[in-house]
């Protein structure tokens, strides 16, 4: 039953392929993600019970539906991922990148932006302000938008003079169009580095806020990922 439902979903998602190739690409990738998630959650790939459809070799099926350009090997399916050479996911952000030291942005890199990506957005915020035991707001540390789709990294200390050509910054909660590092008043806070792949380039007035940015890209996100770091001030 699951196989039949999933294949019907794939048919529905790929029907508009003849008219809108980008729509087709997004639809097929979402379908692939569903296959992968189902198989990883429910089956061990080395088990005898591993079902045939989890091999995800359906490029012949997609070509028959009008997507000849989708001759892909699903085992090479890419998901948008974000990482930093300065800290690991869930790990502590080095003091260098905080208000207690140089207060510069950490190096960030990513891969797996889907076809159809026209720009990327980075939002760095802290949902634990002011006290992680009694959070009252999300404090915005950095906003970068209209990052060119071919970009795969932001260097350490990225700012107005060193961002990729075309990328712009929004206003953080210090009312500055710049990076502001971790500066928790109490306790250990989490810092979410959120990357969004969009199917559009944003047309915004100078120095938008986070809410203005999110409103502008609503309905245009085709992939997203996040990297979380933590920090607590020295005692």
Report the span from N to C terminus: 59 Å
Instruction: Give the uncertain stretches in residue-range form.
Output: 11-23, 35-77
By DSSP (H or I, 4+ residues per run), the number of helices equals 4
How would you classify the quaternary structure?
single chain
The fraction of residues assigned to DSSP E strands is 15-25%
The rough form would be described as: globular
Order of helices and strands: HHHEEEEEEEHE
* Helix coverage percent: 10-25%
Main sheet specs: 5 strands, antiparallel
Order of strands, widest sheet? 6-4-3-7-8
Characterize the structure shown.
- The structure is a single chain.
- This protein is an alpha+beta fold and about 240 residues long.
- It has helices at about 1-15, 20-40, 60-65, 210-215; strands spanning about 80-85, 110, 120-130, 135-145, 155, 170, 190-200, 220-230.
- Strand 3 and strand 4 form a beta hairpin.
- Helix 1 packs antiparallel against helix 2 (about 20-40).
- The longest helix is centred in the N-terminal third of the chain and has 22 residues, at about 20-40.
Put the structure in a nutshell.
21% of the residues lie in helices and 23% in strands. The protein is built from four helices and eight strands.
Q: How are the secondary structure elements laid out?
A:
Blueprint: H1 2-14, H2 21-42, H3 59-64, E1 81-83, E2 108-111, E3 119-129, E4 137-147, E5 153-154, E6 168-169, E7 189-198, H4 210-217, E8 221-231
Antiparallel strand pairs: 1-2, 2-5, 3-4, 3-7, 4-6, 7-8
